[in-house]
Amino acid sequence: MSHLSHVYMRGTPFEARALDDVSFTIEDGAFVGVIGHTGSGKSTLITHLNALLRPEEGRVIINGIDTAAENADLKTVRRTVGLVFQYPEYQLFEETVKRDVAFGPKNLGVTGDALEKQVENAMALVGLDPALGEKSPFELSGGQKRRVAIAGVLAMEPQVMVLDEPAAGLDPAGRADMLNLVKKLHQAGKTVVMVSHSMEDVGRMCQRLIVLNHGKIAFDDTPANVFSHPRELEEMGLDVPQSVKLAIRLREKGFDIPQDVTSVAALAEALLGQLGKAGDANA
Ligand SMILES: Nc1ncnc2c1ncn2[C@@H]1O[C@H](COP(=O)(O)OP(=O)(O)OP(=O)(O)O)[C@@H](O)[C@H]1O
Ligand SMILES: [Mg+2]
After folding, report:
1. Which residue is closest in CA terms to ligand 1's atom 6?
2. pTM score of the predicted model
3. Rounded distance from Cα 43 to ligand 2 centre (Å)
């Protein structure tokens, strides 16, 4: 995407510049975190990725398709990029789980055995028991409902999965399960773009972070490099992960903690390495 800007309610007193000259490229197979304060433009940005919003200013190119072009093949764009909204379970409406999951691919013209197979695969990928297929989605738990909604997007077999706050509103166990699911999607070969409020989550999981601030890209870098600007992040209303804060303080005390430590697990490993050395010196 290049020089993308988006203004809501242009020309009215409510005019809001949600995106301001945003440019970046996402490579196949990447796992990108998008983070920023409330209203920074995250949802507006990702709704451009599957052409639900089409650029008014700037360009979005998905696998060579310019989504603003008049004759753009939007069906292919939407088949390529699967978008999971925030709280997607509110959009479930079919009588059975299976039918809900089948809705997207059916709309794309998939029928018969192929449809059956795609639904089955998607349910397996999100860890839904096939026996739930005939149940009403409304009988399921919150976390399971969300899985159904995600399976519905996966069943269209998109190459790219874009998820807006997939773990929002779940309890700690549900959050961990959901984040594991997102990790699994990436491991299964999908390109993944995940919007999150949690620096801890994106720092631990993603290879690259895009930080939005008032509709502009503030940082687009590895988590370690982004977290090396704690003061700027704080000014944007964001906080570096606890593990990174602790690593900074330990370095000040003379511990040799690598710069790429961005998770509790990595910090623990670095510290144990140090303690091991201290132990050797005492022996
Ligand atoms: N449909 C809309 N009409 C008018 N203004 C909107 C609309 N949607 C978003 N905005 C405004 O555009 C800006 C960016 O909103 P957006 O929803 O993209 O932010 P966000 O980063 O996803 O926020 P959050 O973290 O709260 O989900 C905000 O100022 C918001 O008020
Ligand atoms: Mg949002």
Report:
1. 8
2. 0.92
3. 4
Residues with CB under 5 A from ligand 2 (ion): 42-43
Q: Nearest C-alpha to atom 26 of ligand 1 is from which residue?
A: 38
Q: Is the CB of 38 under 6 A from ligand 1?
A: yes
For residue range 259-282, list pLDDT tens digits in order.
888 889 999 999 898 887 766 655
Instruction: Write down the residue that tokens 């022996």 correspond to.
Output: 283
Q: Which atom of ligand 1 is nearest to the CA of 37?
A: 25
Taking the C-alpha atoms of residue 239 and residue 100, their distance in angstroms, rounded to an integer, is 38
Single-letter residue type at 115? L
Q: What is the pLDDT of residues 60-113, one digit of tens each?
A: 999 999 999 999 999 999 999 999 999 999 999 999 999 999 999 999 899 999
Task: Give the list of residues 6+ apart from residue 177 with CB closer than 8 angstroms, or none.
Answer: 127, 143, 170
List pLDDT tens digits, range 185-226.
999 999 999 999 899 999 999 999 999 999 999 999 999 999
**Residue 201 and residue 141: Cα distance in Å, rounded?**
23
Domain segments of the chain: what residues? Answer: 241-283
- Burial (CB count within 10 angstroms: exposed 0-12, middle 13-18, buried 19+), residue 168: middle
Sheet holding 2-8, edge to edge: 16-22, 2-8, 57-59
Please state, in angstroms and rounded to a whole number, the distance separating the CA atoms of residues 177 and 167. 9
